[in-house]
Automatic annotation (TrEMBL):
Its EC number is 4.2.2.2. The lineage of its organism: Bacteria, Bacillati, Actinomycetota, Actinomycetes, Pseudonocardiales. Residues 47-252 form the Pectate lyase domain. This is Pectate lyase. It holds the Pfam family Pectate_lyase_4.
């Protein structure tokens, strides 16, 4: 690691820089786990458990609540109600491009080592995926649209989470990290999340909206015609916004949001097309893991070609 000093606006930002590898051609990059979910022992989900295929809500809820490690294959469209709990050591993966969970959502609560991949989430009545008091969670290659509240919310001292290669569309409140300014006693030192290679297609806000997490890593995402704002760093957070592609996005990132005070945000190597310049400042802790950073100008092509369901 080396220590570098960057200027964010008029504020000097000092942080440790890990060994990032810059790739000029992101479309050849593997869809392997990267980011915070590689830490703390890594995230393997159900591991080598024999896969079970589910086609009904009763079979799905029974499988995800099991006390044993499981690899659960979601086939077809399954309608559920409310928030259904996912226990530890689970892999939930959709079959093909049409696997869907509709009407309700999944809550990873008090669990560890969970993977959710390749599922279309639509018309959820609360959150699509809620992660709370959980660690080592990987949310990858899903598609989210037309829900009520958060698409992917992470809160209540959750830690070591990666959200990657997902597509978000036709939705307002996309991703909340840290639910309350008053929850610092539980959240400080936690809420470390990586968001990379996600596609925000005309969504409105919270991409993500961050409290307390530091460092939170937002890299190589494609922001397309985002309505209200991209990234917001609030309430003691530290967010590194790196190598993203912002297009037709008036407010790509800023500090403070609503009644939450401004926090730290460092921005570097981003690409802007018909977009604002953003508001950055303060310092962010060093990223502890190695990662491949695609050139920002290539991100639109790689993300639109690789994000969402049916790609793995």
């Amino acid at each position: 690691m080396s220590t570098r000093t960057l200027r964010a606006g008029t504020v000097v930002a000092v942080f440790a820089v890990c060994a990032a590898v810059v790739s000029p051609a992101a479309d050849a990059a593997p869809f392997d786990l990267a980011g915070w979910a590689t830490q703390g022992g890594g995230t393997t989900g159900g591991g080598s458990a024999a896969p079970v295929t589910v086609t009904s809500s009763s079979a799905l809820t029974s499988a995800i609540r099991s006390a044993n490690p499981a690899v659960i294959r979601v086939s077809g469209s399954i309608a559920i109600s409310g928030m259904q709990k996912v226990t530890s050591n689970k892999t939930i993966v959709g079959v093909g491009s049409g696997a869907a969970i509709t009407g309700g959502g999944l809550t990873v609560s008090g669990a560890s080592n969970v993977i959710i991949r390749n599922v279309n989430f639509r018309n959820w009545s609360d959150d699509a995926i809620n992660v709370e008091r959980s660690t080592r969670v990987w949310i990858d290659h899903n598609s989210f649209s037309n829900g009520y509240d958060g698409a992917v919310d992470v809160k209540r001292a959750s830690d070591y989470v990666t959200v990657s290669w997902n597509k978000f569309s036709s939705h307002d409140k996309t991703m909340l990290l840290g639910h309350s300014d008053d929850n610092g006693g539980e959240d400080r030192g936690k809420l470390r999340v990586t968001y990379h290679h996600n596609w925000f297609a005309g969504t409105n806000q919270r991409h993500p909206r961050v409290r307390f997490g530091n460092p939170v890593h937002v890299y190589n995402n494609y922001y397309a015609s985002v309505g209200s704002y991209g990234v917001a760093s609030t309430m003691e957070a530290g967010v590194l916004v790196e190598g993203n592609y912002f297009e037709n996005t008036k407010d790509p990132y800023h500090r403070g949001e609503g009644s939450s005070p401004a926090a730290n945000l460092v921005a570097r190597n981003n690409h802007f097309v018909n977009s604002g310049s953003g508001d950055a400042g303060g310092s962010v802790k060093g990223i502890p893991y190695s990662y491949t950073l695609d050139s920002a100008s290539s991100v639109k092509s790689s993300v639109t070609g690789g994000a969402g369901t049916g790609r793995i």
